[in-house]
Write a structure and sequence with these properties.
mainly beta; OB fold (Dihydrolipoamide Acetyltransferase, E2P); about 0% helix; binds zinc ion
Length: about 190
């Protein structure tokens, strides 16, 4: 079970330890084994190890975009790449617009949207967790169509690589990682 993987629809089961409800779906937030707590009717993830982990500068993480403002992207860390442990303090972090890309970004909403699963690097663990997606292997790994929520696919547009919805044809722009869409969540 990978963080961000869909477990079930929210009508089927309650979110429990290691899972969250997002837009009517139960998703895992930890690397581990999926179990059902029959007494509580809840979906639970048993982490591979349970020693809490403190996030430090330079760590590569997988995170989910929770909120996008004009100049700032707020994310929740799902896991640290290469480390199967729970993160201390819930792992909420921010990416400033100047840390999104080496190219100039006019508005953060042009590069990230709610629900994107991204790979980012920690630049500042304290006082508030900050990270960057500058670099070839950093950026979105999975993005969803803003019209119909279907996962977007990488395709060649007139001005380079863009993301296109195979269901409704909507074309969108993101700061993507080089291996977008390849499912390589646990890679640097
Ligand atoms: Zn669509």
């Amino acid at each position: 079970m990978l963080p961000g993987d869909r477990i079930a629809a929210a009508e089927e089961i309650l979110p429990g330890y290691g899972t969250v409800e997002i837009d009517g779906e139960i998703k895992g937030t930890l690397l581990g084994t999926f179990t059902v707590d029959k007494e509580k009717s809840s979906a639970e993830i048993s982490p591979l190890t349970s020693t809490p982990l403190v996030v430090t500068e330079g760590m590569t993480v997988i995170a989910e975009v929770r909120h996008v403002m004009d100049k700032m992207v707020l994310v929740n860390i799902l896991c640290v790449v290469g480390v199967d442990r729970t993160i201390v303090g819930g792992g909420d972090g921010a990416i400033h617009i100047s840390d999104i890309s080496n190219e100039y970004v006019v508005n953060a909403k042009d590069k990230f949207r709610i629900g994107d699963i991204i790979r980012a690097k920690i630049t500042e663990p304290e006082p508030s967790l900050r990270m960057t997606t500058k670099g070839k292997n950093l950026g979105s790994l999975r993005s969803y169509c803003i019209e119909c929520r279907h996962p977007l696919e990488k395709t060649k547009g007139k001005e380079g690589i863009v993301l296109e919805c195979p269901r409704c044809g909507h074309v969108e722009d993101r700061k993507i990682a080089a291996d977008y869409g390849e499912g390589g969540f646990n890679r640097e």
